[in-house]
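In the current project phase, work has continued on tokenised descriptions of protein folds. One protein thus recorded appears below exactly as we store it.

——
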Amino acid sequence: MKGFGTFILIVGVCWLVFALSMDVSVSTGLGRVNNLGLMADRQLHAIVGGMIALAGLIMLIFGGRAAAPAASVPAVNDTRPCPLCAETIKLAAVKCKHCGADVEPTARYVPATGWTIRIPCRPGMEFDATQKIVSDEGLPCAHPDGAVVVIGPYEEKAEAVEALKHIRVNHSIFGELSYKD
């Protein structure tokens, strides 16, 4: 958005310079006189160029931020919700940085051997709702991995695919298959 804003700003400024450099006089037998039609055209072009430049400036100032590099984005599997305030904290945290509550550190759970379905969720209400749907459907539910609901393990890939299709069709929940040795 900022790149487009810069482009629009440059176009607007060029248009404004063009408008202000227009010659509005015409030659007559007695010399040069100003033409009201040309003066109106110059005024119109100056207004349009100024508005385009203003729009570009607004886009440049308030445009969206560029995407953060992948290294600065925290890993979802390394976090969990705080039991008191539901804000995201690290698995190994002993104190919540948001509410200051003392919490028990949690080791990262490694799923059992077999095919699993991993459903990434936001910590808090979305995670709890997804976990409840999975348990209400009677699907085998492994320990959650951070903010990921893990269904399985299944010995056969076909069983995991059928479970994935079932939750996708009936609840519009999307996950991915993975295999763990």
